[in-house]
Request: fold
Amino acid sequence: MKKFYKITGCALLLSVLMPFNASAQLELKPESLSNPDNEPIEVHPVPHPRQLKWQETEFYAFFHYGMNTYTGLEWGNGDEDRSRFAPTAAPNPRQWLETAKAAGMKGGIAVVKHHDGFCLWPTETTDHNVTNSGNEYGRNTNIPKDFADAARDLGLKYGFYISPWDRNSVHYGTDKYVKDVFLRQCAEIAQYGTDQFEMWFDGANGGNGYYGGRNTTVNVDRATYYDVPNLRDSIHKVCPDCVMWGVGGEARWIGNEAGWAGQTNWSPENRDYAPEGNGMYGSENGWFWLPGESDAKATNMGWFYHDGESPLTSERLFQMYLETVGRNSTLILNIPPNKAGILPEKSVNSLVGMGNLIKARLTDDFAKSAKITVSQERTSGANRNYTAANMTDGNKDTYWATNDGVTEATITLMWDDVKTVRYVELMEYIAKGQRVKKFQIETTQDGESWTRRATNVETTTVGYKRIIPLNGNTANSYGNGYNVKGVRITIQDSKACPLISRVSVY
Reply:
């Protein structure tokens, strides 16, 4: 290990002021500039630790419930009589979350204030809240408290949707609204749990509304109006792992509400991106780590409950999972509670069916029993190695890597007996940035001749997670599968040496 010596600032000053023979007696401090573990350098941008934890949530529920549940609207005007919020039974957030868990989700986000401004907790910021509801069920409701309590008890992550736009407030459009209403509401919600993983701020901001009787149109510049830097700092002091979605600028809208992300999907992006045009794809050379979240509906009508609605099939929901979580996005899937404050039985059944499909199709990992060889392994460091075995050890903090400058490599998995395979899953070690730009997958039945699979799929980016149906069809992904003795993944291009934390074959 090479060493060099530096003179500290004080020693340097003394060496100027003191005679040479005196300064020569100063003790020099040894300093080592080395990389004993031979870790790859980061490829910027990289995620903040809270963004990394958020990405690991992968799949979680959205629960749109509130005044609109009882008016039949999607966007209330803000002039709804408070007594219209009148649940026919005590709302049951625990039942919502139990369903989410059965569907394979790791958490959920509850809407506690939509654009109509009605708050589902006893807030001090407005009388347009549950304490003035139309019956005892409503007046005894506190969705943030009950939701947070149930999530913690079930071992799930949780967060809340708070609309920045408020069509009820007379102060909307003024500084007073931001300071005395919106920021205070966010602070109140933060008090329901310091372990919240996300706070959701809708992109719809400003337009016509009631506004305390003004009945006018109010437009704001959402980039500056909501004092986002102060909002982020205030919430992070209380909830350090809470990602500010949307207006908060820590995760991006994937760009549609249909449950799909781009096959090529970069987590880096620029703040001024146009989500409807580029949200699905990100930007390879984006300046910020701004990962995508796909919001989608599990029912055939609106975000809020409507009489006569039907759930999507379990197969359709599984397809959404492949096209979002399987494409370097998270999936927030909306299931609206009904007027009794519970999820309808048909919705529950469809979601449980989705969870069963995920377990049946993406649990039995053949990679764990495979003999894995790679074209190169990065030279080990003093306390860390980068061997192929790291990709199947179940440890998210270990990974296989090549040496610096090597951006093409192969990963080969072989079995003694034939396996029927349908999916290949790859995960990059994104704590050091997203790298892979192009790859391909092949299979062999005899161990000698190889056939490329998923030829109609863009095998470009990997990111946090990529799931490739080998038949190339997410709508009919399961199929008959392929009988193989080997799978070969060839990384053809990467921003820097590739870092793969996991490879799975199902």
In short: The chain has a mean pLDDT of 93.
